[in-house]
Design brief:
Blueprint: E1 2-6, E2 9-12, E3 17-24, E4 33-38, E5 45-50, E6 57-59, E7 67-72, E8 77-82, E9 91-97, E10 100-101, E11 105-110
Parallel strand pairs: 2-11
Antiparallel strand pairs: 1-3, 3-8, 4-5, 4-9, 5-6, 7-8, 9-10, 9-11
Amino acid sequence: VQLQASGGGLAQAGGSLRLSCATSGLTPSLYAIAWFRQAPGKEREGVSCITSGGGSITYADSVKGRFTISRDNAENTVSLQMNSLKPEDTGRYYCRIGQYWGQGTLVTVSS
């Protein structure tokens, strides 16, 4: 099983980035998929989660109204659209399916 996160980079405050997580080795349509992030010196925290069919979505309070999670089961990908970025969104973002974690993609937001 492999999860490959991409799309991170440097953005200015107020800007946008779109993260993607490509999966292989399993059938992602059977699983909920979540995004987590870990800021420097802080614990990893959940950002958003989407159920297998996409019918239920949750967001951390800190990103509600700014981030949007979506999935394309036909393409085996899940995306995280991040708008109105803030410096506190800086961190490494990971996708997770069950016990499996991607390697993460780094997001840096400058003020």
